Amino acid sequence: MKPSNTPLINILYRSPADDHSAPLHPGEVLREDFLPHCKFTVETLARKLRVSRTVLQSLLAEQSAVTPDMALRLGEAFGMSGRYWHALQLQYDLWQSRTQTAEPSRPRSAAHLHRSQPTQSRA
Q1: Is 14 helix (H, G, I), strand (E, B) or coil?
Q2: pLDDT tens digit sequence for 42-61
Q3: If you ran DSSP here, which 8-state letter would residue 61 be given?
Q4: Residue 75 above 90 pLDDT?
Q5: Phi/psi at 67 (5° precision)
Q6: Under 8 Å CB-to-CB from 65, ≥6 apart: which residues?
Q7: SS3 state of residue 119
Q8: Cα 11 from Cα 4, distance rounded (Å)
Q9: What's the pTM?
Q10: Cβ partners under 8 Å of residue 76, min gap 6
Q11: pLDDT at 69 > cutoff 50
């Protein structure tokens, strides 16, 4: 995968018409765009992030998510905001949730909140 020239705003805030295409997992972005550009090895980046190689390899293999703590660590390592990594993960998670839900959530009316529950009389 070649580094993307797509502005971050287009990646993170796509229109509903773009919902058919999955956003990239943050691990893929890290593996394909950041590591080659910065010429970090997995071991070097793991040390820089202060995590084990196993933790980093799990993220790079798209088997784990970017936690808020990891987002801050990645932001610090690459001289950017942790919000970038957190937003990538959020976008990915939202898309995954939407596509894994068999039936889209339907708005519920507020009426169900105000129905009184039958009370049981005490004997």
Answers
A1: coil
A2: 999 999 999 999 999 999 99
A3: T
A4: yes
A5: -75, 165
A6: 26, 59, 89, 92, 93
A7: coil
A8: 10
A9: 0.68
A10: 82
A11: yes
CB hemisphere CA count around 92 (13 angstroms)? 18
pLDDT for residue 120: 53
Task: Say if domain 29-101 classifies as CATH 3.40.1160.10.
Answer: no
Residue tagged 């820089």 (tokens) = 48
CA distance 93 to 71: 14
Please tell me the predicted confidence (pLDDT) of residue 12: 52
- The answer to whether 21 and 15 have CB atoms below 8 angstroms apart is no
Q: What φ, ψ does residue 28 adopt, rounded to 5°?
A: -70, -40
Per-domain residue ranges for the chain?
29-101
Kindly tell me the sign of the dihedral angle through the C-alpha atoms of 56, 96, 87, 38. positive
Q: If phi over 0 gives left and psi between -120 and 50 gives alpha, with beta otherwise, what is residue 62?
A: left
* Nearest-angstrom CA–CA distance, 50 and 63: 19
